[in-house]
């Protein structure tokens, strides 16, 4: 049986859209790429070449949404523009897949999650790790009490993060540096897997001579009494990532290197993931939920927590002391 066709519009045609989202949309086999929007035409033309077919181009995403008949949009644009773009799409009855972070402010994140609920539209945030089988199973274990009460966690992510010469190095567009960008994946993994609610953070940042943060250390206290320490080091030689979650019954440790999962250990032994949990992606999930009427969809409440945590860390640096996380 042929898949139901889903009409998609893209907002932002840079490298991430071309190299990450386009292959996933192509793999679905049932996506009709109706139109693309970008303030510059050159990346839009490069994206069409990658897609293998020319489509409508708009310099203004609002005109694209008003002019075309779409089911959903995928947003991969500078962080500070997410709120306006996602809101505009949701208000006009479209489902949305948006790159991380959802927004650079917690009030905006809350407003978008609430708007999606009100409009009965799907809002999916592109945190790929939340769709990896070991991460999905780890969350199940935590929810089922397999680790017992979570008492602490230690995590880090490293990268040779320079942000290139583009918008990531412009605070007004990016909202921040390594911590806001790559670091958001680690924050998301921590909060999504554990379900912990941060209540207080103390952070230190070093810009290494840039306009945005490159290296960040955040210590956190959570509502259940757990304590955590997270490092986001953009001055490293390459990507490496670890997350250790400690409960009073068991410890779970993830190790990713060069963007691949190397091992996941439960009390020192390889984690055995049930076969029922299969590989997934944010793009595939959005398309599946559109077709099945939202079966299995979960609102992106964790993305609001990510925004609150991130916001508090920057506020801690500004004030030079620990701060409460907004509730």
Notes on the structure:
This protein has 327 residues and is an alpha/beta fold. It folds into two domains: 6-128, Rossmann fold, CATH 3.40.50.720; 129-277 and 302-324, 2-Layer Sandwich (Dihydrodipicolinate Reductase, domain 2). It has ten helices and 15 strands. The protein has helices spanning 15-28, 41-51, 61-67, 82-91, 106-119, 133-143, 171-174, 183-194, 282-291, 301-319, and strands at 6-11, 31-37, 56-58, 72-75, 95-99, 123-126, 150-160, 198-206, 215-222, 227-233, 235-247, 251-257, 260-266, 269-270, 323-324. The chain is globular, with a radius of gyration of 20 Å. The mean pLDDT is 96.
Identify the notable features of this structure and list them briefly.
single chain, 327 residues, alpha/beta, Rossmann fold, Dihydrodipicolinate Reductase, domain 2, 2 domains, nine-stranded mixed beta sheet, six-stranded parallel beta sheet, 34% helix, 29% strand, globular
């Amino acid at each position: 049986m042929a898949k139901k066709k889903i009409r998609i519009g893209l907002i932002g045609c840079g490298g991430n859209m071309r190299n990450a989202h386009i292959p996933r949309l192509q793999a679905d086999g049932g996506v009709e790429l109706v139109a693309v929007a970008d303030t510059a035409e050159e990346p839009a033309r490069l994206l069409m070449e990658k897609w293998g077919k020319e489509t409508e181009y708009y310099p203004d995403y609002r005109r694209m949404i008003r002019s075309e008949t779409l089911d959903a949009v995928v947003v991969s644009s500078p962080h500070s523009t997410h709120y306006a773009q996602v809101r505009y799409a949701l208000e006009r009855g479209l489902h949305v897949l948006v790159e991380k972070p959802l927004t650079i402010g917690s009030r905006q994140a809350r407003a978008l999650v609430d708007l999606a609920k009100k409009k009965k539209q799907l809002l999916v945030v592109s945190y790929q790790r939340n769709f990896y089988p070991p991460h999905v199973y780890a969350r199940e274990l935590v929810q089922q009490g397999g680790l017992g009460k979570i008492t602490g966690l230690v995590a880090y992510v490293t990268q040779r993060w320079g942000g290139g010469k583009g918008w990531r190095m412009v605070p007004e567009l990016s909202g921040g540096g390594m911590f806001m960008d790559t670091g958001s994946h680690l924050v998301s993994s921590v909060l999504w897997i554990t379900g912990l609610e941060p209540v207080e953070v103390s952070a230190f940042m070093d810009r290494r001579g840039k306009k945005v943060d490159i290296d960040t250390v955040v210590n956190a206290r959570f509502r259940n009494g757990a304590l955590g320490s997270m490092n986001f080091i953009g001055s490293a030689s390459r990507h490496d990532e670890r997350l250790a979650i400690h409960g009073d019954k068991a410890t779970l440790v993830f190790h990713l290197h060069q963007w691949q999962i190397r091992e996941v250990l439960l009390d020192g032994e390889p984690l055995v993931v049930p076969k029922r949990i299969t590989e997934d992606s944010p793009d595939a999930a959005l398309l599946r939920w559109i077709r099945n009427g939202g079966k299995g969809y979960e609102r992106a409440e964790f993305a609001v927590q990510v925004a609150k945590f991130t916001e508090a860390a920057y506020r801690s640096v500004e004030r030079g002391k620990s701060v409460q996380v907004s509730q």
